[in-house]
Amino acid sequence: MDNARPWRVAVACCLGLGAVALSSGQVAAQTASPLRSDATAGDVVVTAQRIGIPVWRVTSPRATIVLVGSIGRVAPGTRWDPTALDAALAQADRIMFPEAMDVSFGLFSVIGLIGKWRAQASLPKGQTLQTMTTPDQWARLVALRDRGILKPGFERVHPYHLAMRLGRSTRDGRKFETGADGYVRRYLRKHGDKEVPLAQGNLKGLMAEFFASSPREHVACMMDAVTLVEADQAGVQARATARDARSTAWAARRVPDALKDKVADAQRSCWPRGSRMERMRDASLSPAIRSLLTGPQVTLAVVSLDSLAKPGGVLDDLVAEGFDVRGPRWKR
Prior knowledge:
Blueprint: E1 7-8, H1 11-15, H2 41-49, E2 55-59, E3 64-70, H3 83-91, E4 94-96, E5 102-105, H4 107-120, H5 129-132, H6 135-146, H7 159-168, H8 180-191, E6 200-202, H9 203-212, H10 219-230, H11 232-251, H12 255-260, H13 276-291, E7 298-304, H14 305-309, H15 314-320, E8 324-326
Parallel strand pairs: 3-7, 4-7, 5-6
Antiparallel strand pairs: 1-5, 2-3, 2-8
Helix pairs in contact: 2-3, 4-9, 6-10, 7-10
């Protein structure tokens, strides 16, 4: 019965883990739209070049890919016109999210993992945060307790769980605008396009590495969250300013500036960052995009801007392999 009905939802949603998302913002299915035979590669390319946000055209003798760089949600007040993106979406043969993964699981698996998550929240008998932190780290935790940010008894909380709690307190509370990623997903829901996952995973298998880890391995994650909380209101404002600058640079196609202004978060050292499944996903991204250039179709693919434009990222890989890549400059 456990496998009789697979439930496909985000891992982060089912366990309440803010850092578990495998792609920008969530685990989701790659999406392919029905072929639109009346569109031409030229139509999509011309439309993509008018979008304004970071978009690259990659061509091979047989196919064309339009790569849309996404930063997830954008800061309030960011102005970008989705009209041309609508046209590019309507003209493309396929619309995809190459970083996405379809995670399937049975109801009993979910119940079991939730039970493990709750049981893990308290450290094993005989262990405390004081025994696994340096004197300086412990003093910083105590200082947060004295400020009322941490509750008495925090020393028995698993460091990953404590990091998640602290991370929630560092959000600036503003209502963000929909970015390219969310906009395309909304377009696909509206038009009822069929979901075809690029990669598949089993929830139990994906979470096995996390539950097999020791609490000490998550201290760095916890201390990243502590650092942001320590910054207090000035730090919240600084991060809000950085988000505004990154969003403005993204909307103006100033890719190096958008990469430079990436906002520090309380989860940069937190699982699944650096995990086996993230390494596998990152290693497969360039080959997955390259495989889309082998068929006679025009593909519009939404990919995180960082994965596309970072040194040694997807765009660098495609150029090194001899593909024609045209779009905004991504290096200084």
